[in-house]
Amino acid sequence: MKLYSHPFSQHSRRVRMLCDELKLRPEIENVSLESGEHRSAEFLEKNPTGRVPVLEDDSMVLPESHAIMKYLASKYGGERFYAQDNTTRAQIDMWLDWNHTKLNPPVQTLVIQSMSKDGDPAQIEAAAHQSTDALEILERAMPIESGPDGSPTLADLSLVSTIALFEMVGQSLQGFPKVAKWYADIKARPSFANTAPTMDQ
Predict the structure, then answer these.
(1) Contact between 26 and 1 (Cβ < 8 Å)
(2) CA proximity to 168, closest of 100, 106, 111, 116
């Protein structure tokens, strides 16, 4: 099993967190986004969108973080992360979709603009406002569905990977006490520390 990844990709990190929780040890191949490796002909054969992560498992090649997470949980005994009953699974899927469409886009813009030497202050302000609007929704929804033994679900891992980037650029969860408590609980799990990016990566 091989995972094409990037240390600072939140999409990659959520997959690596799940692998850590499942005790899977895929070969990690970091794709250099900085040098444009993700736009190479070889990589585009694996994922025509040119994005990480991409999973290779036997003869299967699968892009898209949420699809990879569902596949891994279903194949490798991760029922506690992705419930088998339809009602709970639907709730997990809903939060995966919500993160993909509502929280992740403004956080990603916020991070890109904040870390760029040519970052646009207006875009940073707008993205920060949109991010906090989304966090207000998440705060009202807490607690979200957890696994049968209190373990995080795929939705938790996805959301936490996004909020970790929000925190990385100096944003605070002050004003969102339920989200902050939930986030702290998952941050305390080994899978969070084991997948944290470092500046030398």
Answers:
(1) yes
(2) 111
- The whole-angstrom separation of Cα 32 and Cα 38 is 7
pTM of the predicted model as reported, rounded to 2 decimal places: 0.93
> Tens-of-pLDDT digits for all 201 residues of the chain?
999 999 889 999 999 999 999 999 999 999 988 888 888 998 899 999 999 999 999 999 999 999 999 999 999 988 999 998 999 999 999 999 999 999 999 999 999 999 999 999 999 999 999 999 999 999 999 988 777 777 899 999 999 999 999 999 999 999 999 999 999 999 999 999 999 986 555
Whole-number Å distance between alpha carbons of 34 and 29: 15
Q: Give the C-alpha distances (Å, rounded to integers) separating 49 from 37, 40, 41, 53, 144.
A: 13, 11, 11, 11, 31
Domains in the chain (CATH in brackets) are 2-77 (3.40.30.10), 86-193 (1.20.1050.10)
Cα(40)–Cα(34) distance, integer angstroms:
12
* Cα gap 147→8, rounded to integer Å: 27
> CA torsion, points 47, 165, 198, 117, in degrees to nearest 10?
90
Question: Taking CA 183 as the corner, what is the angle to CA 178 and CA 186, rounded to the nearest 5 degrees?
Answer: 130
SS3 3: strand
